[in-house]
Structure formats: structure tokens, C-alpha cells
Amino acid sequence: MGFTESQEALVNDSWEAFKENIPHNSVLFYTFILEKAPAAKGMFSFLKDSAGVPQDDPKLKAHAEKVFEMVRDSASQLRTKGEVALTNATLGGVHVQ
């Protein structure tokens, strides 16, 4: 089963909506992560020593933006190639803990 053009379009639309307010959406993104998996806090250098999700942290914003860009790029690869080729080989080692 492949990734359809309409599925890719949904991901792209989400990316466009996310970009409209990256600072707010980044905080919201990490707030949801920590609500679902509080133990994940230690995986993010910009969250480790904070009481909650910092509101104006450039590292948080940059990381969230990178994550959403990779999701968008992966959706495109899934539709065109049927698979995703990681552009950063260290991702598995960092995120599978």
C-alpha cells in the first residue's frame, strides 16, 4: 500500500499551517509530547533543565521546524519512491532509546 497524493497533500497542508506560527506551534508540539511521554523530556537538551516547555527558546523552535520539514520530505518520498531514505544517519541512534 503506497502513500497517496491526497495523503501527501494533507501533510503539506499541515506543514504550511505549522509555518504560519512556528513559535506557538513549536511550544504546542513539545507540550503534547511531554503530556504523552513525560520521560522524553530528558531526550531534548532544550527541555532537560526547564520546569516546562520554554516559550521563547530558539533551539526548541529550530528542532520542531526540522521535525516537521522531515515529515513533509518523508511524505513526498513515500509517495514517489514508496520508502523513506534518511538524510541523517544519526537519527536512529538518538531517537531509539
Automatic annotation (TrEMBL):
Signal peptide interval: none
Keywords, ordered alphabetically: Heme, Iron, Metal-binding, Nitration, Nitrogen fixation, Oxygen transport, Phosphoprotein, Transport
Residues that span the membrane, as ranges: none
Keyword Calcium attached: no
GO MF, one example: oxygen binding
Keyword Iron listed: yes
Superkingdom of the source species: Eukaryota
Record domain Globin: where: 2-97
InterPro entries: Globin, Globin-like_sf, Globin/Proto, Leghaemoglobin-like
Family assignment from sequence similarity: Belongs to the plant globin family.
PANTHER family named in the record: LEGHEMOGLOBIN-RELATED, NON-SYMBIOTIC HEMOGLOBIN 2
Role noted for this protein: Leghemoglobin that reversibly binds oxygen O(2) through a pentacoordinated heme iron. In root nodules, facilitates the diffusion of oxygen to the bacteroids while preventing the bacterial nitrogenase from being inactivated by buffering dioxygen, nitric oxide and carbon monoxide, and promoting the formation of reactive oxygen species (ROS, e.g. H(2)O(2)). This role is essential for symbiotic nitrogen fixation (SNF).
The protein's name in its UniProt record: Leghemoglobin
Originating organism: Oxytropis lambertii
Gene: Lb3
